[in-house]
Please model this.
Amino acid sequence: MKKKINTKTAILLVGVAVYLLFFTSCATTKFTKFNTPQTVKEHGYHIYDDYFAFSNLDELKNQRFIFVRLYNPVYKQSFSTGSILQTGINLVEINKIAASHASIGFSLKDDFYGLTLYARPQFKVEHCTEPRKNEYMRQCKPFKSIQTVIGLKVTEKEYQAVLDMVTDFLINQNLTYDVTKNFQMAGYTIGRKMNSLATGQTEIFCPYIEGAQVASLHNTEEKSFDKLKKYKFVCSTLVSYILYQCVDSYRNYIDLNNLDWNNVGPSDLINFDGFKVMFTSTWVHYNRAAEEYLKSKKALVDFIDK
Model:
């Protein structure tokens, strides 16, 4: 007689398969237990009351920002693998904002830089309002796909370091999307989900991840890139790597908490100290959302969108 599979075991196995398939594209729709703000459904955007704090005007004048855009796309093909597996993916989601892709930017203009499997080249500029220019984005419905921008205060030196690294990657195109990394991240995220179910606590990061496991990947020597070498990342680990190398507050948070920058998923980025959730919108309403955000934060206009 064949042994029957326990219902919970079956659900977990399905979840594993779902997650592995999902991360292979880094472009699938994720579902979250937190609803999209009603204002997005009504007006196409939502502005969050998550303010950047400044002690005085001089501090504001000397401030720079790095922005990360989190994507929750909807495919044009409603019966695509990503859409069908949407509910299964939620089995491993613990963050309040759903995201399956992350990119990095230097202003609130619709120019962010991201790494995807399907884009050619794989690391290139992404425009929410012009998705046809990017092979990954053209597969999605811009009126239904959602994006959320989060921001981080940095120094001028840190800003320039991030800009230099991104520019170097764009010029040399020595990045490649690491499909095999998705399997590692799948196990990591599922382990985190199971841990939260077992303890009743929503752990943002797995306690068993050791930063030393990837120490060789983020030592100081790696800041000098070999232009002939291909560096492997997925979208969010690339963003995390850049921030770890260039931004002290991000690196200190990783090291002090014994975390692993190489296992940071797109939606995990909202949990790091210093990041502010700024606004959410559909892709087509991105520019309007950015304009409304700046209007609501008048003191920041001259500094946040340089």
Summary: The mean pLDDT is 77. The chain is about 35% helix and 15% strand. The first helix runs from residue 7 to 25.
